Amino acid sequence: MASSPAIKPRSFGPAPSKQLQWRHQLVSRSSSGRNIRGLVTRRSSANENDGEKIAATEDLEARIAAGEFSQYRGSKREALVKPVRKLLASDQGGPGRFLAYALAKASRQWRRNAAERMPEAKGDVRIALMGEDPLFVVLYKLYRAYGRVFQLSFGPKSFVVISDPKALKHVLVDNADNYTKGLLGEILDFVMGDGLIPADGELWKMRRRTVVPAVHRKYVAAMTEMFSECALRGVDKLDASIGTDLPEKGSGKSTSLDMESFFSRLTLDVIGKAVFNYEFDALSKDDAVIDAVYTLLREAEYRSITLLPYWRIPGVSRLVPRQRRCEEALTLVNGTLNTLIADCKQMVEADDEKFMEEYLSKSDPSILRFLVASGDDVTSKVLRDDLMTLLIAGHETSAAVLTWTFYLLAQNPKVAAKMRAEIDAAMPDGPSALTTDDISNKLRYTTRVIYESMRLYPQPPVLLRRSIEEDMVDGYKVRSEADVFISVWNIHRSEEHWGKDVLDFNPDRFGPLEDPHPNEVNTGYRFVAFGAGKRKCLGDMFALYENVVTLSMLQRAFDFELVNPDEPVGMETGATIHTKGGLNMRVRRRKDSSGGNGTVTSDDDLLNQMKMGKWESVSEMGAKASEDSSGASATPTAAAAPAAAANAN
Fold first, then answer.
1. 109 is in which domain, residue-wise?
2. Residues within the annotated binding site for heme?
3. pLDDT of 148-167, one tens digit each?
4. Which parts are annotated binding residues?
5. pLDDT tens-digit profile of 304-332?
6. Would you say residue 113 lies in a domain?
7. What residues does heme bind to (predicted)?
8. Is residue 637, in this structure, part of any structural domain at all?
9. Could you check whether the bond before residue 460 is cis, i.e. omega within 30 degrees of 0?
10. 151: which strand partners?
11. pLDDT at residue 55 above 70?
12. Strand 483-487 relative to strand 157-162: parallel, antiparallel, unpaired?
């Protein structure tokens, strides 16, 4: 500290005739999260009658050496050292003063070290993690208490939790080579082996070079027709559920079903055809292979949220019924994949010259056929691991996105009406095959609806990484071999980054429709639904087009409303975000789903009437839609009470 001109010292005796008044202000952390030294300001009053002339700096230095102004409470070590410093500082002529200064210097170093240690979530976190709230909701509550980067510890394990776009970019992009999939690879090893998602290092680079060409734009274009075919099958399935013996479409009859289960089966059919040209036909039947696939999906999710990996104990698979079922399911699915791989190899060898021509003509644009015909010298096990990875990742995420999109639309009738007007214009004669041009040019708002759904309900809500070497993230030290949770949920729901309306379902927030759709780069890494960096989801366009096609087809044919709109739809942690108890919706045919010209009050008409004040509330607008349902298309989404959308916290 720089010396100051001599001032009157503070008197420690009773009723002093002059007094040096000190005001000490300690700023424990600045806005950037760094510890800074306490700021000492002073004010003095002079007394001309007092003849004592003592240098105030001497007294000040002694008091600093004694630790009088060290109010830092973060270290037990400093708390123990402080009285020792005070005692040593009282030794005016001996070595005590020197030792007191040495301890003061050490204390400053301890504070600097402490500044590099990130905040740690306090209390018994285990109770919170094992409670009713899903993991990502617990992390959101802790984020609001401890900030954008903090440490979460329970038992012998500790995790770094990141909820900041810049810190995310550092881990996933700028210093991505220092981070592996870590914990995720350990969780999924039993089912994905050395597949693309859990793989790291050179193995990952090799598999990515092989798999990426299989999902290029021409492949996605070829798949879009298949998306339409599967979605039309879904339309037929729902139509059959309502009943085919009704007097006419739009009669108002409806059926109630769990749409989450429906989407799970529909997307399994899509991914089966896309990945290895296999007809699961899950919408229409149950069989052993389908049951085995679902057993593996549930087990992967179970292991992702279980703190004690007991399944790694030798012999457990034979003792625990759950693990026995998992082993049996894995054997069946692996056997099925091995058969498909062997058959595909025979077909490619027999007709190798026609492969590329057939691929582009869409006769069999499966990923399996492309990988086999690409000529890479890979074993059947490596192929099987890649296919299993694509099966699980592609199926779960799309089913979850569609589930929460339909939930949000049911809660937000104005958004649903605007979207359906666009869909009706794109398919004026009812549900029909869509192309990539249709999606790019005619369904831009519908595409934004999917993006906004993924913002509020990202799939997955948390990304996992593990550091290789020590690193600095947001000014904090991250040790080597540290497991990192990157909370996409927290970033996507941060008021700091998205504004006061962060929890509103608003597809217009991404700007004019002619602007590029949101991605990690043009949003400053605030939107990372598909990840970021070199390990970004390679099937992002596949998933997006699949979801847009399915959403458009179903919304063109049917009206959807929540069976119990006033009851919250709970969430459960898994590889993706699931509902508690399913998404139970009432499904009703639209009058004009085949291009009919009924006297229906359209979504746009209803909204325009509401703007003109004809309807005082959304409930009245929904009542009008229900009245029309006897001879026209109802708008049940408008009848649903507009509960707070997507805010489950």
1. 70-117
2. 537
3. 999 988 766 789 999 999 99
4. 537
5. 767 677 888 888 778 889 989 999 999 99
6. yes
7. 537
8. no
9. yes
10. 120, 160
11. no
12. parallel
